[in-house]
Amino acid sequence: MSAVATPARQSTGGISARTVNRIVIYGLLALFALFYLMPLFVMLVTSFKTMDEIQNGNMLALPQEPTFAPWIRAWSEVCSGLTCVGMKGYFWNSIKMVVPAVIISTLLGALNGYVLTKWRFRGATLVFGLMLFACFIPFQSVLLPMATILGSLGRFGVKLQNATGLTFGFGNPTVNLVFVHVVYGIGFTTLFFRNYYEAFPNELVKAAQIDGASFFQIFRRIMLPNSLPIIVVTVIYQFTNIWNDFLFASAYAGSGDVMPMTVALNNVVNTSTGVVEYNVNMAAAMIAALPTLLVYVLAGRYFVRGLMAGAVKG
Amino acid sequence: MSTVAETSITLTPEHDARPGATVRSRLQDALPKLVLAPSFAATIVFVYGFILWTIYLSFTNSKTFPSYAITGPRAYQRLWRWTFESDPPSSWYTSITNMGIFGFLYISICLALGLFLAILLDQKIRGEGVLRPIYLYPMALSFIVTGVAWKWFLDPGLGLEQTLHQWGWTSFHFDWIKNKDFVIYTVVIAGVWQASGFIMAMFLAGLRGIDGEILKAAQIDGATTFQLYRRIVIPLLRPIFLSALIVLAHLAIKSYDLVVALTSGGPGGSAWLPSNFMYEYTFKRNEMAVGSASAVIMLMTITAIIVPYLYSELREKPR
Amino acid sequence: MLRKLLIGTALASGVAFAAHAEDVKEVQMLHWWTSGGEAAALNVLKQDLAKEGFAWKDVPVAGGGGDAAMTALKAMVAAGNYPTASQMLGYTVLDYAAAGVMGDLTETAIKEGWDKSVPAALQKFSVYDGKWVAAPVNVHSVNWLWINKAVMDKIGGTEPKTFDDFIALLDKAKAAGVIPLALGGQNWQEATMFDSVVLSTGGPEFYKKAFNDLDEESLKSDTMKKSFDNLAKLVTYVDPNFSGRDWNLATAMVIKGDALVQVMGDWAKGEFNAAKKVPGTDFLCYRFPGTDGSVVYNSDMFGMFNVPEDRKAAQIALATATLSKSFQSAFNVVKGSVPARTDVPDTDFDACGKKGMADLKAANEGGTLFGSLAQGYGAPPAVANAYKDVVSKFVHGQIKTSDEAVTQLVSAIEDAK
Amino acid sequence: MAFLEIDGLKKRFGAVEILKGIDLDLEKGGFLVLVGPSGCGKSTLLNTIAGLETITEGEIRVDGRTINDLHPSKRDIAMVFQSYALYPNMTVAGNIAFGMEMRGVPAGERQKAIDKVAKVLQIGHLLKRKPSQLSGGQRQRVAMGRALVRDPKLFLFDEPLSNLDAKLRVDMRIEIKRLHATTGTTIVYVTHDQIEAMTLATKIAVMRDGEVQQFGTPAEIYNNPVNLFVADFMGSPAMNLIPATIGSNGSGFSVVMEREARQPISLPLGNAPAGLSAFQGKPIIFGVRPEALTDPEGAERNASNIARADCHIEVIEPAGSDTFAVTNLGGKAVVARLRADAKIQPGTVTPLAFNLTKAVFFDPATEKRIV
User: Fold this and answer.
1) Across the interface, which of C14, C31, C43 has its CB nearest the CB of A161?
2) C374 CB contacts (<8 Å, ≥6 apart)?
3) Under CATH, what is the fold of the domain A73-313?
4) pTM for this entry
5) How many CB pairs under 8 A join B and C?
6) Would you list the domain boundaries of chain A?
């Protein structure tokens, strides 16, 4: 722990200097907390206001007659396109896509990091460098070629279906999204795990080898159980990124039955015409953001710990 | 000790080299590479393959759809010409100058603010557990979620300016979002709001990882708090600066929805970033060749910045 | 968990395919009509189809006036998963038709008599290479003024007939302390207003030559310069916060009486309708001064894709229902636009709608029906967006004089052609 | 036939040769210590025996069986690591049993084996703890327990004591020695600490730059170093290596050492090695261990060849059991080991006794010993 001694500890001025110091520090921290909270605050108060109050009142004012109606509407009535079932219907769509994508990309990242640090081979660094640089590709420029490939996979799925009666997920929009997010997520997950495993003692792997553990046994019994901090970081990172993705989701899974939360929210919020129900929009936005918010708030403490454990090094 | 020898556990008899063992051991040797192969292959195809595809398209006459007849570097010639059209500014000129302003401010403010908050939060603060998620949560939200709130806040008729006017400070003016010369700074504000907490967490982790004895030694040497941070702590955080730089650079380059959600492109397109340019030309204006060329230039710029860093970082730790 | 999910989705899709053995009684529809009034209007079509036994698979992608939807469409087409139909605008239909991904509705069109009832100007976009590839849903007209009647009465204004009248009216409003002109400072809104200004300043012939034929002489003429000067005059009447404002917020300013007038397409009427305002008593609809007799239009179309045989029946049903007189009437009453065929009775329409229909008919017959450049019906998207760039930069001051604006317009359009 | 045989072992990483042809053998029940400065290849050599690193050339045989290409787990070895390498996520019992678990040993048998080892190493009360809850010494014991439970043909130790404090290190050294004595297992042990090497080994291999400099019993290595490096490396305080020349005094040779501001010392050599004759009048390195350079009263009584010379004492280091005196010969600080109660003051001139029976001579050019 660094815990740099507060200036007061060395100052000879005694209590008053220390107190002033603390007040300044807490004041600054509180000020920034306000800055960070502001948009959330606006969204929250707005979501509890009536439309009248929104149009005539102050953005920052607390609701005079708080109402839950916007939340109820957003949850169960609001329309995305012609389907008016509220946001609740899209939760499961998102979960169905996010959970496998996060699990697979994290697992692959862990395996890759394990190979790249504990089973180094000639060119391993180059392989890692190439995978890392891949994180920087702008997604807009892969949208179309990826669609082409997904399309061919889909047609392959139809052939499979004709032959075997099952598509094995080829051509399924949710599976497609999982695939895309895994492909463009492994760069980051590999980076996280590689940096973490870089500091992981080699001798443990050697000892396990002598103990007769196989490649996968070492991974499952030795590496994974000792990777909790970095798993937390990776899962949080992947979960938020994938949950919040709009570009791929709208392009590959735009139809109502598979549409993830963000696309639905966009359809609710981004109406090109018509009366804008800001309170409902805000409530819908809050609902869509709830899982990621929850993840950050609940796992925030482990997040910093995980970062400490190696994710931020080089 | 002989007691242990007596128990002499009978192990499964795997000592002898059975026929086929060499094949198996060869498979064992190849296993790590086999495990890595799918990820690597996917990266090669879906990233580098697509980059090649984009480069190819930038030399064609692709409009709405890809066309595969090479027609020369016309797209680059246009971009090159636009690079120097500053008055009135071409969209490309606006995009790249904005990238310069935004990239510089966004990265430097995030780093400075992140470090500053991390240092404050590291002073044995009561309520750290409450403050940390408050600083961190913006990273969890997409701008589809927060865009409207930000638009409101920055709008002089609805947001901060109006609020302060209502509270009696009528001379206050904050209309950057309406001003073609200042709108990019509002993008910086929102961008900093989103990412600085995350950077704070990275620095906080770094601070917590510093060996306390070094600090004690420095204090005994008579360093003031300021000197302590400037001369000891901050230099020790160097690897974190570099990681944070990578994270921020990648976020800055991908900042597309930020501009759209906040400003819809800004007055007269004055808030565009290169990613907006690329999207507009590829998908909206049906000038896929120009869009591809701009993507290639973006990638080349990233390469010029990131590759030297990757090279030095990955070379420093040979084994 | 994961395995279950994967198998689950695989099974689900398997089951879906199994049902596709014969004709698929389903239409897949990509659109960006997600807001209340539009969605309600589209729902009419959904129900019409449901009566005939066709299911409606909704693919709504809102945002950017169809930008996000068009991106999704491009991805779908690249993947080879054509939707049954997609909402599309003007030249985009032709682009997709040229790429060979559109279907052929000619048989239905002839049977239903579309070629006679749909205005020729619209057929330019719905027919490619002699084949019907799209079903027009409506005709919007952009050269309208939307005026708050209470404010108009208060300042004692009358319908402006010329551009100078309009300026005088705006001055009156300014003197009375209301915001004269409600404008949303987004490039398409500014350019949409400029469409009307050019038509008003240069007349129908000039508009056609400059903005539909892209005639360079006209584009760099003094008339065009004067048009920019007129635009500059109008911009002096907007409030300082106009930049970046959504169009419906500008409309709301007129509805609430904060502003006198908005220059906007007839989709603005949907906002007045939604606010329960009545034309003639609460608000007034006039043609943009000096443009009466001409109609600058845009039109929403349902582009029909080359779907597999087993989906063609559903597609034909969709197209037929779209252009049926009953749907055309019901839909456009809600949407604020006018029917895409000229033989629909105007009984259900309000005063503004009736005028719009009459104007369209007259303009169609008189050859004064022009595509809106701002709305993508005057020229392909590359040109249209270059045009919007120039207008917007002029409004926001990156381009400082009308001389410079004309030069920029010519070179930008030349560049984009 | 020896139990462990290493023939012509080479290891290359790309163009760099880490091990340059190692030949070693060890009898059953022997204790081989690989010693050398860091980077000499001793750990690599151990890793190749363990199978943790492949070899480029050569052969390793254990009990007559070539194990070159066997997986580490099939070589019937156990290894104790410098960092102990205890699996942090498992209990002590889990750590000890992991290898058996991997081999599919039934749970009941595993428990029996754990109990036995725990009893021997007195770690029974720790079995349920995690490694993070153990002290350094306890971890060391657990690491040994993990190795012992396998009852391997060959034990490998990779600097097992270097992470312990000085006192614990001595205790554990004795423990290992006792373990070796009671079980009679064959051990290969890597260390950079020459005291460990001397105290534990039955055979020592001194390594440098990927080559074995000398291979022999501790006594051989100590008394008859083959070259300057071995002489310098083994022993603490290190052997005095003094630049000198060989003179002749009619009846035999003498060794002449320059001194600052004084007459050179000339010591007559009674039983000079034969090779020395070629060096007459030429410079050599004269090697004498501190314990062979004492105060005349403390000198070995029955040594056949003792020479005296007056030396100027610069520094005195009383170390309790001995007193070390530093003088300057041939331009180098030379350490003499005196009795604890020797009455010598720094700055004085005192006669010192050189036990020339134990002296060795090196050729400065080849650094090899002159025999």
Assistant:
1) C14
2) C142, C188, C191, C192, C194, C195, C384, C387, C388, C391
3) MetI-like fold (1.10.3720)
4) 0.86
5) 91
6) 1-67, 73-313
